[in-house]
C-alpha cells in the first residue's frame, strides 16, 4: 500500500485491523499515544512482539482517563493480570471497546465487569455501594447510598436473587438507549 | 415467511458466567467449581422449540446477516465459556481445559463457513483479549486455507469472489480512512463533549450532519445546473449596491442565484455535439437532491429508532439508569466534579420522587391541573394562530407598503417580523412551565417541543400558502425569483438574529447571572430550542432550492459560522447541564421531526408548485410551459419517437403514470406492515413470558438451596465426621449472600463430585 511505517509488520497491522474497530491510521495513532506515555519503556519496533507493560500510574495520567472516577477499574478490567498495567494489546482493546463502533452487547459486557468491583461475576450490594460512592464523591450520606442501592436492585434484579447477573445488567441496558453514547471514550 | 425459528434468534440469555473468571492463576480451588456451574444452574428450557444442548450463552446479534448464518449452527459463539481464561495449557483440571478447547473448536467451526465480512465482525465482537482474538483469527485463517486448498480446483469461481471481496474491503477501509481524515471539527467536538457531556454534543453533531446535507446539495446543484448556466451566460444590466447581501434583490436578481436567470434552451456547444437540456437538468437535479435527502433521512431515522426504541413501552425513570450510564466522555476535572454534584442532586430528587409516588392527588387537584393544561394549550395554540394571521396580513399588505415607502430596505420588514416572532414566542411558551405541573418531567420537554414546532411549521405553512396562492397567481413578472428572494431574506434575517442572540443575549445573561443576580448563575444550553432553529432553517433551504439554486451554499456558510459562534458562546457563557438529558431519544425525536413535518411539508409544497402552478412567461428554464411538469411530458413524447428509449416510455406510462400500479404497491406495503405489527405483538408477549420464567427460575433456585441446606443440617447432625470435605472456600466479601454462596458452592461441588465419580 505504500505505508512507510516500521513499527508493525504488514500481517500484524492487518490482524489489529481485523480484531479492533480501528483503521490502520488510527491504530498507528494509538500506538504513538501509547509510546508517548512511556518513551523509554516502549520500543518503536513491535515486529518481534516485545513483552512491554506500561504501569497503571502512567496510564492513569492520560487526559482521557485522568478525571474519570472509574479509571482504575477500567485499567484493571482490560489489563493482562487485573492489576492495571497494560500491554499494547490491552491498550488497543480498551479503546476499541470504548469507541463508538463497538456494539451494545460488547460494551455492556465490559461495563458489567467494570462495575463488578470484587470480580465475582455478579454486581452485588457492595459493588453497587462502591459505584455510587465513586459517582457522587461523598455527597450522599451512607443511608442515602444504601437506599439508592436497594432501589437499583429492586428495579434491575430480574430473578430476584439479590444481585445483578450479566443478563440482568444487559436487560437494564436495553432500556437505557443513552448507554451507547455515554460509554464512549473519544481518542 | 417468519416462522418459529426466527423466533429462536432473540433475547435468550442463559446464565453461565462462571465465578472467578479473572486471570487468577492462584485460585485453584474455584476451578473445579467452574465445570459444575453450567450443569447446575437452570436453563430456559424448550420455549417455542429451542433446543439447548450445551450450556453456552446465546446473545442477541446486532448483525442481521450473521444472525441468519448463526441460526443454523446450534452454538452461537459469543460469550462462550472460554472468555478471558488464561492460556489453556496452564489450566490444572482436565475437565475444564477439555471443555474450553472444545468450546473454542466449536467457535472456530462456526466461524469458518461465514463470509469474511461477517467473520471479522464476529471476531471483533468477541469479549476476549486481543491476544486471544488474534490467535483465533490465525487459527481460522489456517483452517480456511487448509479447506480451500482441498477444493481449489473446483472453485476458482469462489476464489475470484474472495479476491473481489478482499479488494472491496480494502477499498472500503481506504475510503473510511479518507473520510475520517477530512472529518470536520473532531478535536473541537471532543473538547465540547469533555466539558459539557453527550447531550450538548448531540446538538453540534446534528449541526454537522445538516452541514453534510447542504454540502451534498450544493455540489449537485452547482455541477449540474449552475456550471452549465455559466457557460451560456447572460448579461447583468443592474448596478451593485451593498444592500444586496441583505435584500437579495437588486444586482443579485439577474445572477445564477435565482431561478429567473436560468435559460430554457438546450445548450449546445459544437454543432452536432452533446446537448444539455437545461429544463430537464433543472427538474431532475432538484428531484435527485430531494430523493437522496429523503432516503438518507429515512435510513438515519430507522437506525436511531432501532437503537433507541427497543422497548418504548417500558418507561424507566428509574435510578438504575442514572447509576450505570455515567458519561465517560467528560474529561475535564471541573466538569467531572460538577457532574458528580449534579448527579447527587438528581439522585436525591429521584429518591424523593419515588417516595412520593404513592401520594395520590385529590379529585379537585387533578381537575385544577387538567384545567391549567387545557388553558395553556388553548393559549399557546391561539398565540400561534394569531401570529400566523398577522404574518399573512402583513404579507398581503406588503406590496402597497412597499409602493408607499421607496426605501429598498423596506422589503426586510416581513422577515424582521417573522424572526421576532420566532425569537419571542418560544420564550413565552417556556414561561408556561412555571404554571403547569407535569407528573413526569420528560413530558414537559416534549410538550414544549410540540408547541414550538407547531408555531414554526405553521408560520412556514402560511408563508408557503401566501407565495403559492397569491404571489404565483398575481401575474408578476418572474414570480419564482420573487419567492426565492423572500426565502433568502428570511434565512438571512434568521441568521442575523441568531448571531445577535449569541453575541448579545447570551452575553448579557451571563453578566446578569454573574454580577447582578448571582443566584441565577450561568445558564444552561437549551438544546431543544437551538435544534428547532436548525430544523426551521433547513426547511426553508429545502423549499428554496427550487427557486434559488445557490441557497444550499448560503446555508453551508451560515452553518459553518454558526458552529464557531455557538462554540465560543458555549465556552464563555454556559454551564454544563444539570439534569441527565436522554440525548439519544431526543435525537431520534428531532430526526423524526426533520422528516415528518419538515421534509414532507417541503415535498407537498414543491409538488403543488410543479403540478399546479404556471411558470412565468419570460424567465427561467420553464418559461412558456403551461405547467412545470409539462417539461417531463414533452420529454417523454420526444423519447417515444426514438426507438431505442421505448423502455423508458413504457416504465413511465405503465409504472409511474398508472394508478393500478400504485394501488397494488400500497396494498402490498400495508399487508407487510400489518404482518410485522402482529409479529411485534407476538414478540412482546414472548418477552413477558420469558421474564416471568426467569423470575420463576430464581424462585426455584432459592427453594432448592433452602431445601439443600436443611438436608445438610440434618445430615450434619446425624454424621458430624464425614462433612468436613464438603465446605469450599468462600471468596466474596458480601456478607449477606455468603451463606447462600456457601450453599451454592456446596451444591456445585457435590454435583461435580457425583458427575466425576461415575466416570472414574
Automatic annotation (TrEMBL), chain A:
GO terms for cellular component: growth cone; ruffle membrane. It comes from Myotis myotis (Greater mouse-eared bat). The lineage of its organism: Eukaryota, Metazoa, Chordata, Craniata, Vertebrata. The keyword Transport does not apply. Its main location: other. One of its GO terms (molecular function) is calcium ion binding. Residues 144-179 form the EF-hand domain. InterPro entries: CIBP, EF-hand-dom_pair, EF_Hand_1_Ca_BS, EF_hand_dom. It is found in: Cell projection, Growth cone; Cell projection, Ruffle membrane. This is Calcium and integrin-binding protein 1. One of its GO terms (biological process) is spermatogenesis. It comes from the Eukaryota. Pfam families: EF-hand_7 (PF13499). Keywords: Angiogenesis, Calcium, Differentiation, Integrin, Lipoprotein, Magnesium, Metal-binding, Myristate, Repeat, Spermatogenesis.
From TrEMBL, chain B:
InterPro entries: TMC (IPR038900), TMC_dom (IPR012496). Residues 478-584 form the TMC domain. Pfam families: TMC. Its main location: membrane. One of its GO terms (cellular component) is plasma membrane. GO terms for molecular function: mechanosensitive monoatomic ion channel activity. Signal peptide: none annotated. Keywords: Membrane, Transmembrane, Transmembrane helix. It is found in: Membrane. The chain crosses the membrane at residues 209-230, 280-299, 374-395, 407-425, 445-468, 539-565, 585-608, 656-677. Residues 717-744 are annotated as: Disordered. It is a multi-pass membrane protein. Belongs to the TMC family. This is Transmembrane channel-like protein. It comes from Myotis myotis.
Amino acid at each position: 500500500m505504500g505505508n512507510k511505517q516500521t513499527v508493525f509488520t504488514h500481517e500484524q497491522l492487518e490482524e489489529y485491523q481485523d480484531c479492533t474497530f480501528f483503521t490502520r491510521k488510527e491504530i498507528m495513532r494509538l500506538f504513538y499515544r501509547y509510546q508517548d506515555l512511556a518513551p523509554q519503556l516502549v520500543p518503536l519496533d513491535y515486529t518481534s512482539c516485545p513483552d512491554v507493560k506500561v504501569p497503571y500510574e502512567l496510564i492513569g495520567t492520560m487526559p482521557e482517563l485522568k478525571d474519570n472516577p472509574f479509571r482504575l477499574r477500567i485499567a484493571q478490567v482490560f489489563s493482562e493480570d487485573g492489576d492495571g498495567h497494560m500491554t499494547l494489546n490491552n491498550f488497543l482493546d480498551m479503546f476499541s471497546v470504548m469507541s463508538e463502533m463497538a456494539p451494545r452487547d460488547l460494551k455492556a459486557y465490559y461495563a458489567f465487569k467494570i462495575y463488578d468491583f470484587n470480580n465475582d461475576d455478579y454486581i452485588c450490594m457492595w459493588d453497587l455501594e462502591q459505584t455510587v460512592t465513586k459517582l457522587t464523591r461523598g455527597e450522599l450520606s451512607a443511608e442515602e447510598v444504601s437506599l439508592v442501592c436497594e432501589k437499583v436492585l429492586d428495579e434491575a434484579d430480574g430473578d430476584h436473587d439479590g444481585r445483578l447477573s450479566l443478563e440482568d445488567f444487559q436487560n437494564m441496558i436495553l432500556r437505557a438507549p443513552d448507554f451507547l453514547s455515554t460509554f464512549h471514550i473519544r481518542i | 415467511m417468519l416462522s418459529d425459528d426466527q423466533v429462536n434468534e432473540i433475547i435468550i440469555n442463559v446464565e453461565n458466567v462462571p465465578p472467578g473468571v479473572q486471570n487468577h492463576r492462584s485460585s485453584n480451588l474455584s476451578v473445579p467449581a467452574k465445570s459444575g456451574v453450567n450443569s447446575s444452574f437452570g436453563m430456559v428450557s424448550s420455549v417455542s422449540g429451542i433446543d439447548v444442548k450445551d450450556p453456552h450463552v446465546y446473545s442477541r446479534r446486532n448483525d442481521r446477516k450473521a444472525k441468519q448464518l448463526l441460526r443454523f449452527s446450534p452454538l452461537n459463539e459469543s460469550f462462550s465459556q472460554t472468555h478471558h481464561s488464561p492460556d489453556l495449557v496452564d489450566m490444572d483440571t482436565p475437565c475444564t481445559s477439555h471443555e474450553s478447547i472444545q468450546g473454542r473448536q466449536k467457535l472456530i467451526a462456526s466461524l469458518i463457513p461465514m463470509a469474511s465480512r461477517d467473520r471479522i465482525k464476529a471476531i471483533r465482537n468477541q469479549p476476549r483479549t486481543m491476544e486471544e482474538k488474534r490467535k483465533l483469527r490465525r487459527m481460522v485463517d489456517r483452517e480456511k486455507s487448509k479447506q480451500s486448498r482441498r477444493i481449489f480446483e473446483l472453485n476458482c469461481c469462489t476464489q475470484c469472489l474472495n479476491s473481489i471481496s478482499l479488494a472491496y474491503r480494502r477499498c472500503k477501509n481506504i475510503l473510511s480512512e479518507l473520510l475520517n481524515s477530512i472529518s470536520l471539527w473532531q478535536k473541537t467536538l471532543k473538547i465540547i463533549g469533555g466539558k459539557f457531556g453527550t447531550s450538548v454534543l448531540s446538538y453540534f453533531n446534528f449541526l454537522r450532519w445538516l452541514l453534510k446535507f447542504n454540502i451534498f446539495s450544493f455540489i449537485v446543484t452547482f455541477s449540474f445546473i449552475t456550471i452549465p448556466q455559466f457557460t451560456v451566460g447572460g448579461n447583468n444590466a443592474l448596478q451593485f449596491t451593498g444592500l444586496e447581501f441583505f435584500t437579495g434583490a437588486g444586482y443579485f436578481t439577474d445572477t445564477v442565484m435565482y431561478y429567473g436567470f436560468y435559460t430554457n434552451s438546450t445548450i449546445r456547444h459544437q454543432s452536432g455535439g452533446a446537448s444539455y437540456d437545461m429544463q430537464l437538468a433543472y427538474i431532475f437535479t432538484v428531484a435527485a437532491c430531494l430523493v437522496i435527502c429523503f432516503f438518507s433521512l429515512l435510513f438515519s431515522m430507522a437506525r436511531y429508532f432501532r437503537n433507541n426504541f427497543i422497548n418504548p413501552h417500558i418507561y424507566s425513570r428509574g435510578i438504575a439508569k442514572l447509576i450505570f450510564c455515567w458519561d465517560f466522555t467528560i474529561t475535564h476535572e471541573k466538569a467531572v466534579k460538577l457532574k458528580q454534584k449534579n448527579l447527587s442532586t438528581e439522585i436525591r430528587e429521584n429518591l424523593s420522587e419515588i417516595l412520593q409516588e404513592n401520594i395520590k392527588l385529590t379529585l379537585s387537584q387533578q381537575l385544577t391541573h387538567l384545567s391549567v393544561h387545557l388553558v395553556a394549550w388553548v393559549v399557546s395554540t391561539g398565540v400561534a394562530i394569531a401570529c400566523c394571521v398577522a404574518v399573512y396580513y402583513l404579507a398581503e399588505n406588503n406590496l402597497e407598503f412597499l409602493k408607499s415607502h421607496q426605501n429598498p430596505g423596506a422589503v426586510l420588514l416581513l422577515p424582521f417580523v417573522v424572526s421576532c416572532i420566532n425569537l419571542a414566542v418560544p420564550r413565552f411558551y417556556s414561561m408556561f412551565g412555571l404554571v403547569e405541573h407535569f407528573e413526569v418531567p420528560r413530558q414537559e420537554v416534549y410538550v414544549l417541543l410540540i408547541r414550538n414546532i407547531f408555531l414554526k411549521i405553521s408560520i412556514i405553512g402560511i408563508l408557503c400558502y401566501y407565495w403559492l396562492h397569491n404571489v404565483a397567481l398575481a401575474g408578476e413578472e418572474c414570480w419564482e425569483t420573487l419567492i426565492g428572494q423572500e426565502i433568502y431574506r428570511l434565512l438571512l434575517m434568521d441568521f442575523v438574529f441568531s448571531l445577535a442572540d449569541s453575541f448579545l443575549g447570551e452575553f448579557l445573561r451571563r453578566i446578569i447571572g454573574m454580577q447582578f443576580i448571582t443566584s441565577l448563575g450561568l445558564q444552561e444550553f437549551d438544546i431543544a430550542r437551538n435544534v428547532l432553529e436548525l430544523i426551521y432553517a433547513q426547511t426553508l433551504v429545502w423549499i428554496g432550492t427550487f427557486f434559488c439554486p445557490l441557497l444550499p451554499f448560503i446555508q453551508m456558510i451560515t452553518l459553518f459560522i454558526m458552529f464557531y459562534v455557538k462554540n465560543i458562546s458555549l465556552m464563555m457563557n454556559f454551564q454544563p447541564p444539570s439534569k441527565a438529558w436522554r440525548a439519544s431519544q431526543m435525537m431520534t425525536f428531532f430526526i423524526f421531526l426533520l422528516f415528518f413535518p419538515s421534509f414532507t411539508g417541503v415535498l407537498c409544497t414543491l409538488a403543488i408548485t410543479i403540478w399546479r402552478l404556471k411558470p412565468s412567461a419570460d424567465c427561467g428554464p420553464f418559461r412558456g410551459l403551461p405547467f412545470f411538469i409539462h417539461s417531463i411530458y414533452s420529454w417523454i413524447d420526444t423519447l417515444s419517437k426514438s426507438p431505442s428509449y421505448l423502455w423508458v416510455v413504457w416504465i413511465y406510462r405503465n409504472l409511474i403514470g398508472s394508478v393500478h400500479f400504485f394501488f397494488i404497491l400500497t396494498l402490498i406495503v400495508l399487508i407487510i406492515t400489518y404482518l410485522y405489527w402482529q409479529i411485534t405483538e407476538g414478540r412482546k408477549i414472548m418477552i413477558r413470558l420469558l421474564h416471568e420464567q426467569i423470575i420463576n427460575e430464581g424462585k426455584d433456585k432459592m427453594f432448592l438451596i433452602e431445601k439443600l441446606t436443611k438436608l445438610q443440617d440434618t445430615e450434619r447432625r446425624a454424621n458430624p465426621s464425614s462433612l468436613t470435605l464438603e465446605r469450599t472456600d468462600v471468596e466474596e466479601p458480601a456478607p449477606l449472600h455468603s451463606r447462600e454462596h456457601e450453599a451454592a458452592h456446596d451444591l456445585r461441588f457435590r454435583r461435580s463430585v457425583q458427575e466425576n465419580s461415575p466416570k472414574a
